[in-house]
Amino acid sequence: MSNKEIDSIKHHILLCEGKSCTKHGSDSLLHILKEKLLRGKKEKTVLITKVYCTGNCKRSPIMILYPEGTWYGKLTPKVLKKIIKKHIKKGKPFQSHIFGTVDSQ
Ligand code: FES
Q1: What gap in Å lies between CA 13 and CA 69, rounded to an integer?
Q2: Tell me, what's the pLDDT at 2?
Q3: From the CA of 73, how far away is ligand 1's center (Å)?
Q4: What are the chain's domains?
């Protein structure tokens, strides 16, 4: 990844692909993220990174969204589509599935 490509990134998504999250559908979430945010885009503004167990399996599947450091849990395809529409595209966090935020101070 070049410096120019890194500079164009506006959101970094960490999607858990650990055992519990995979069991609860993280593969289909990854597919949705790629379809909605990456497919056909010339300039990539989103970086998706798979991680393996964040230690929050009871809330699986998990996604962490930066730069805000927002932790989303118990995701479904329907909820993820709302997060993409509201949070990623409009900057308004989707409160009902947030269980934590990294304190950046
Ligand atoms: S497998 Fe995803 S939080 Fe544990």
Answers
A1: 9
A2: 86
A3: 10
A4: 3-101 (3.40.30.10)
